[in-house]
Fold:
Amino acid sequence: MDSFIERNLINTGTGLIKALPFLILITGMALFVYSVFGEFQSPTSKELCNGLGKILISSAVFTFLVKSYQFTRIFREELTNIIFEPKYLSNRSDLPMYWGKVSQELCKNKFPNINDKLLRDISEKYLPTNHVMYYDDVEHLIDIEVEDAALGFIKVTQTIKLTAIPYDKNETFFFEFGNYMPYVNDDQSDVHYSSAYVKVNNVLIDGTKIVEDKSIDIGEKAIIHRFKTPLSGSDKYLVERSEIKKYNVRFDNIIYFKAGRMYNGLRVDVHYPKDLLKIKLNKSGTLDNFITEQPTKHSTRFYCKGIIYPEQGYYINVKIV
Structure:
């Protein structure tokens, strides 16, 4: 019984607090009207009644304004949450238009003539709107051996290790790789290429599951290969592949890498005989520079800690001493 009475008292008090601005306004208006039309025994009493009525009316109006501002602010915050809620955004078909407007506001129209091009490049090349998988923990291991210093022939073994992160494990994606090798002799006897292996989650992939893309053109005086292997059923894939190339470094002295997907950082370890070769790694379009280390007398290590976007990468100049 006591708790019931207490709840009623609390509810009554809450109701009175909510109604207080209206009571103040009504009382103030009554006093003001009475001060204008009522009869007073002295001018002082009339002025007192008039002044008190104005004060109460002002207080009530101020209270209403404060409540109105609070309500508007809460409503605005809730509306903002609704507009930017992922469930709401996922159902919109005009996100590029929104993005364009936000970009223009962010840049304050500093680039009015190229806003559309900036939006296109950002959405198509630099953000994963059309890329459904990215690569993490990427490591390139490059082992260079000199087979004939006088003629300039070298053997390059390249091993790539990475973690492929898809957006949906139930979808089938493809890990793609390939090479480009120019040659001098028409019979291509001065170049040699072999794909050593491809592993996914530490399992060696059967050669029949590595499909060569036959649609590419063979370049003039160059051998081009492009392969792909399907990935499906996992939240991430530990991928490792290796390939071997033999060619004349005096004719082709560039080891080149260009990203086909987004890379979250990249480490490049190059092992080579420093008494016979000189190498220099240069970034190719990456926003961050490569940091160079000399861990051993036979190796050099390069780090790029930022994101590497498609069409970016590096190239290594190789020269026989």
Observations:
- The chain has a mean pLDDT of 79.
- The two ends are 99 Å apart (CA to CA).
- The longest strand covers residues 133-148.
